[in-house]
Structures are given as C-alpha cells and as structure tokens.
Write a structure and sequence with these properties.
This protein is of the alpha+beta class and 108 residues long. 39% of the residues lie in helices and 30% in strands. The chain has a five-stranded antiparallel sheet with strand order 1-5-4-3-2, with helices on one face. α1 (12-20) crosses α4.
C-alpha cells in the first residue's frame, strides 16, 4: 500500500465533494479504479470526510482518502492507494485531485 499527503488551498468540504463526484473521478483516480464506470465511492464517514473506492474488475486495487481542515483555511488530504505500482501513482493521484479541485473552484 502506498501513502501520499498534501495540502490544498480550498475548503475541506470542496476537496471532499470534488473527490467523491463521479463526474470528476475519471480525472483523478488511477485507471484501474475507473474501469467500473461511474461507480461511486463507499462513504466511510461523511462527517470525517473519508471515502473508499474499490474495483470489481481489478480487485487488488483500492483507494481511501481522508480530508481534514487546517488552521490556515485549506485542507489536508491523505491517500492510501493499493494495487500494482501504487507506490508510483500515489503522489500523482493527489496532484490530479488538486487539479480537479482548482478546476471546480474556478467553475463555481
């Protein structure tokens, strides 16, 4: 399992809602977790802003994010990614999510 963390300059609710939006998932999740179409994540805890993705077509793959508020007004995101070559993809996956969050803020 690979782990990655990063801060984002957006409210945590915006980061979490962008992450769980099935229309945006294809832009940030690794390919192996996108093969099941618009499958929604399992919301582990909405209050704790935690969600998990699994793949029926690639059962060795999973992803879990946790979004937390930081004092400066942004968000801190933790990603646990499991699957083949997950270690090489964890950081890029959060970069992709950050790009989607920025696009979401500019669109709204």
């Amino acid at each position: 399992m690979a782990h990655a963390e990063r801060g984002m300059s957006a409210p945590p609710e915006v980061v979490f809602n962008t992450a769980i939006d099935p229309d945006r998932a294809a832009a940030w999740l690794p390919e192996s977790l996108r093969q099941d179409g618009d499958r929604r994540p399992e919301l582990v805890s909405v209050e704790q802003m935690r969600a998990t993705w699994y793949s029926d077509s690639a059962p060795d793959w999973s992803a879990e994010i946790r979004v937390e508020s930081v004092d400066a007004g942004g968000a801190w995101v933790r990603l646990d990614l499991a699957g083949t070559d997950a270690a090489g993809l964890a950081e890029q996956t959060l970069v992709n999510l950050a790009r989607e969050v920025a696009d979401n803020l500019q669109a709204g």
